Amino acid sequence: xxxxxxxxxxxxxxxxxxxxxxxxxxxxxxxxxxxxxxxxxxxxxxxxxxxxxxxxxxxxxxxxxxxxxxxxxxxxxxxxxxxxxxxxxxxxxxxxxxxxxxxxxxxxxxxxxxxxxxxxxxxxxxxxxxxxxxxxxxxxxxxxxxxxxxxxxxxxxxxxxxxxxxxxxxxxxxxxxxxxxxxxxxxxxxxxxxxxxxxxxxxxxxxxxxxxxxxxxxxxxxxxxxxxxxxxxxxxxxxxxxxxxxxxxxxxxxxxxxxxxxxxxxxxxxxxxxxxxxxxxxxxxxxxxxxxxxxxxxxxxxxxxxxxxxxxxxxxxxxxxxxxxxxxxxxxxxxxxxxxxxxxxxxxxxxxxxxxxxxxxxxxxxxxxxxxxxxxxxxxxxxxxxxxxxxxxxxxxxxxxxxxxxxxxxxxxxxxxxxxxxxxxxxxxxxxxxxxxxxxxxxxxxxxxxxxxxxx
Amino acid sequence: xxxxxxxxxxxxxxxxxxxxxxxxxxxxxxxxxxxxxxxxxxxxxxxxxxxxxxxxxxxxxxxxxxxxxxxxxxxxxxxxxxxxxxxxxxxxxxxxxxxxxxxxxxxxxxxxxxxxxxxxxxxxxxxxxxxxxxxxxxxxxxxxxxxxxxxxxxxxxxxxxxxxxxxxxxxxxxxxxxxxxxxxxxxxxxxxxxxxxxxxxxxxxxxxxxxxxxxxxxxxxxxxxxxxxxxxxxxxxxxxxxxxxxxxxxxxxxxxxxxxxxxxxxxxxxxxxxxxxxxxxxxxxxxxxxxxxxxxxxxxxxxxxxxxxxxxxxxxxxxxxxxxxxxxxxxxxxxxxxxxxxxxxxxxxxxxxxxxxxxxxxxxxxxxxxxxxxxxxxxxxxxxxxxxxxxxxxxxxxxxxxxxxxxxxxxxxxxxxxxxxxxxxxxxxxxxxxx
Lengths: 456, 435
Fold this sequence. Notes:
By secondary structure, chain A is an alpha+beta fold. Chain A has helices at 2-11, 69-82, 114-130, 193-197, 200-215, 231-243, 311-316, 350-354, 404-408, and strands at residues 16-32, 35-52, 58-64, 98-101, 135-153, 158-176, 179-190, 218-219, 223-229, 271-273, 296-300, 303-304, 325-327, 334-336, 340-343, 359-372, 375-387, 390-396, 398-403, 411-414, 419-420, 425-428, 434-441, 444-453.
């Protein structure tokens, strides 16, 4: 493959050419209640050729298979000329890298028979259904994916990477006396088959417990509370409210949301993104431009000190590329995207954070966290009231909304119990596509936060 | 390729169907700084489904003819571990006429897309705005066949243009996203409508709810907001949820559930729209399906799989996507217009909130109909006139309850992607403003 890619690059007439080929093997088994609804394997190969030259914009050709790579590069060059760009592409320099991380995957999911994967999904579904008599309906989706990437550029960079990911997603619907509630959760682990299935039983128990608990949860009363977010909810907030926005010059992204040098939170808030963190779903040795990933701090002690960059946005901002150019689809162009976002740990435990709160709300996990401009909305997976320094009854409908600055300005404590979230979400961003993301955080406390009338 | 796929499994399976979709998409985006990105993507995706020993197996791939043996092998493996299902594939039937392709859109090149995007960008540009514009066209061919003799193909084209407008110096105004799409290239009138929509959204000054941070008020939803608001209704009418799941409409066929002014159909035969097609991805001929008829539940949508499980015929709403089994989905979702124009609806509302766009976001459970959605573009209406733009608005309540007693249905039906929707006046909803 290496020879074919560099041969195609040598025929390109563009000033800069990049060729990425990716092959994805995947298996998915869906069990609805006790019935297997589908069990299938798939494999897809494709990629993108991208070109620019002095004075031109980008030209990109997405393709299937691996045939005629030289033609793809030539067509991409023609498109870059056809665009009649009034602003040329300028790329920040990166060191030429040759990196091979394609060693065989221990316990490779591709070698596990589909029947065994089906059995695993059925076992989880049975465990879920049997966990409580009030579980009325269930859905279990088990998936694994092996991705091999070959990336070559006309500057000489060569990257070859092989990675594997195993995931399970679970939905439980609980019913009692006409009251119906549901809960969902997922776990996504990078690595071999058994490595990824280890946490699935615990996930099932957690999701079942939440759906049943919600049957008796009362809607939260709207108002202003001191709130404590668990690691999952904090991680979701950090991704959406900080690292997702810390990317300059993306279509629809306001570059003024997080200007460098601005204080947006207290001293205890330090946020960054680390694509090199080991073993996470969004970790990688290189981004899709061949830049080596590096841990990038976005907010240092409450002040914006950096952004996540591709080579192009780095050049425009006179910064160094950070290795965050990620393609959101097999045939798509790379854009700056967050990977493994983190909030650095502070001091104290969850008990320390809760102590002294006479009336508050504890948010556990995030069903969703969205942003529009600088407005953020976080919907809790589940929640409990905090009364007199202790966790109390479950409540539902907990949703935090507000402006980025007012929200982060209300942070008053960060605990020391940092943990990466194995849920592993996906970040969707319009034309930039969908990329896997992970977050890591400790517990977080915010004061005087409006809890809206929400449905979760 | 369809014939070769079916021939490859013939004699080894009880039945099989196959679908091949080709797509050639050309897209162009112009950044606010004037940088142009042009992208082209060509794909041919083949889907195979086999019935063997009472079980169903699936596979898909984009490797062309060379991949046929692998596709067959994967489908067989999938069937060995797959669902037990009595699936009956359709037989050939007359195909309805429906326009799915425009020669103009099919012929559009990068220069033409550049002209469209640049025209929209320049029309939207103001001193206090940062505008990015894009244009796209795709052409392709859909071919579907099965072992019972169905073999149909139809050409498709799609074209769209859109923009993201960011306001500089307007406190907290979110990015304003607008687009229009159809099988043909957008007309100048359609571009002007987008320009007018952006001006209308950004024009009003900031206002505050006189009733404080929370109130129950009448709400007028513009078509783009209706699209998100009706997601629970769409889910309740579709597939497993509707026929076998916990849809609140399940088992209520023929019952008067909603306001008599509400009529909803699924219309694959609407000419030149994103969901238009003469036949579905499983070889079932397309037809208009009444879903809500003057407030009565009139129909649910099924594909072959859900139909087999629920013992009902497919309505021709099967869709295939890569690496997944077929799923049930709407084609073109239409809410029929009412008699009132938007000005009349606002006059009828008197004091309330008009919402141009709702963010569905992640997390809400569409099955229950309960929602709490952000409204990034919401306006205070007093005395039937827009007084100003509201920030941080959240619309809460239950969609199914709100549709039981509508305040009015607009005559301003607008195509938004594959949905054609009028404005809706809701009698009362919870409105809260986050700080």
